[in-house]
Amino acid sequence: MSVETLKAVDAAPITRPEVEDFLYLEAALLDEWRLPEWLDLFTDDAIYDIPPTDIAADASSANNLFYIADDRYRLGERVKRLMKRTAHAEYPHSKTRHQISNVRILSQEAGLVEVTCNFTTYRTKDDFSNFFFGRLLHTLDISGDDIKIKAKRVVLDTNGLRNQGRISIIL
Amino acid sequence: MNPNSNDPLVMIDNERHLFKVSRSNFTDPEVFAKERERIFSTCWLYLGHESELKKPGDFVTRVVGGRSIVFNKDRQGEMRALFNSCPHRGAQVCRERKGNAKAFQCFYHGWVFGQDGALRSQPGEDSYAQGFKDDPDSNMRQVPRLESYRGLYFICYDPQAVTLEEYLGNAKEYLDLVCDQAVDGMEVIGGTQEYAMNANWKLLVENSIDGYHAVSTHATYLDYLKSMEGGLTDVGLKGVGKDLGNGHGVIEYTAPWGRPAGQWISLWGEEGKNEIDALNARNEKLYGKEKADRIAYKNRNLLIFPNLIINDIMSLTIRTFFPQSPSLLHVNAWAAGPREESEAARQFRLSNFLEFLGPGGFATPDDVEALEQCQLGYRNSQEARWNDISKGMKLDEPSMDDEAQMRAFWREWDRRLTGSEQAQGVGA
Ligand code: FES
Ligand SMILES: [Fe+2]
């Protein structure tokens, strides 16, 4: 199913399979390094957050040091950067596999849908492979023609990044 | 058998202005064992910041120099550092990363310890000899030395070590320039960046005070700043690198990025400008113009030997790291700022931090990649044997993109490991 078929009908609630298809599409774009297209999935005021693992999962980036706390501008710059050869940490690009499961719709109201799912993302860089895992929280905006991501928070279940080293890919 | 085993670990030729470091220092398990004994067991090591323990009973647990430590504040408000091992059979007593506790109970057999580590009670107490509880061996051991400088707490496993102040020596001037940015004290901001590199810890020492690599390693970060409306001033990267003695080193320089400590960029708007102006005016009143300008416009990458980095750059970070093996290091990094800082200023500080620093930033991941590539390159260290740290050696006043501050580290490292004094009395 393509993203076009996922258009939100006025006031009609979105279903879990529709949300799943959207999240699978997002994962596929990341795995294929089609990052500019991935970026198009976001609203203009979107945020992308990865809190550290020694504070509450819903902590605010306004008064805590995160791993990543991108507004839409910085997220765009992140994508631009990762598409350059001079983003040394990701050159040559890692191979990644974003796995998603346990998708649940938590709420939907006024065109905004809160979704949670579990994730495991595998990464191979040179001779090393490792993985990230935890929970994703998406706020989806379904008020327009296309589903858009208004907020994405990645809650890691590891203690820090001792096995992963860094988050140079997008989770 | 290593055919090069008679080579020095550090080779200094002052006449030819050459400074070479053996690559075996980054791979050899014997060197690693000696470092644990002669550096991590004898040097002052950063433990934590006073602001992390606010109330009596607050504690954090931390691995420092390979030891498991409880850092806590007791009922009287005194800071303490305890070895996190039960005197009974050795289990880690405190298993939480942070919290507040009136007492610590080891879950294995149920011994209970006070905030000072003293044994308070144990089940089946009457089966023990009289006076058992009064024997110091029945208590959790205290770390032999715990001292602080301006809110930064350090520990040392060597009871004979010089005082922290003496150890810090000339580095204190630079710590003051950081701490004097706050009138109500500095605080560590919530959230720790905990990450790792498949690289020897000394590579991160060098990298953290390396003014030479920015243009090529961090091209994408500089692109980013350039692309941002008002993200940069026209100030150039310019300054000096210094050997501060005792293995400490610093680079101090001007740079085009915004500094929440006093260098405004137009991105921060009029309100941001007013705030920065007020900050600089306050500092001028407190410290005089010269020092206030130095606080505001000079960046500092400071190394406190062996493994504490305080980078007062586009943001302020405290970073410490420990080797797990010759080719693996763990990093803990924090952001810090003045307690009295406004919400808006705090935002700029954190935003600046995340753009550059940390495992998800636009710069640090490329540093990690560089260090890991070096470590991979050291597979050839029997044949391709030497690292070069000579840059700027012939200069009277080495610049921030020279390597004097790294030579400071390596001289002290060599002195502690081998007893070599080959570097003494030499200029930068
Ligand atoms: S090991 Fe702690 S009570 Fe026995
Ligand atoms: Fe760097």
Automatic annotation (TrEMBL), chain A:
GO process terms (BP): 3-phenylpropionate catabolic process
Keyword Oxidoreductase in record: yes
Keyword Transcription regulation: no
SUPFAM superfamilies named in the record: NTF2-like (SSF54427)
Superkingdom, natural source: Bacteria
Keyword tags: Oxidoreductase
InterPro entries in UniProt: NTF2-like_dom_sf (IPR032710), Rng_hydr_dOase-bsu (IPR000391)
MF annotations from Gene Ontology: oxidoreductase activity
Sequence similarity: Belongs to the bacterial ring-hydroxylating dioxygenase beta subunit family.
Protein name, UniProt field: p-cumate 2,3-dioxygenase beta subunit
Source organism (scientific name): Marinovum algicola
From TrEMBL, chain B:
Record-annotated Rieske domain positions: 45-155
MF annotations from Gene Ontology: 2 iron, 2 sulfur cluster binding; dioxygenase activity; iron ion binding
Pfam families tied to this protein: Rieske, Ring_hydroxyl_A
PROSITE patterns: RIESKE, RING_HYDROXYL_ALPHA
Source organism superkingdom: Bacteria
Keywords: 2Fe-2S, Dioxygenase, Iron, Iron-sulfur, Metal-binding, NAD, Oxidoreductase
Record-linked SUPFAM superfamilies: Bet v1-like, ISP domain
Sequence similarity: Belongs to the bacterial ring-hydroxylating dioxygenase alpha subunit family.
Protein name: p-cumate 2,3-dioxygenase alpha subunit
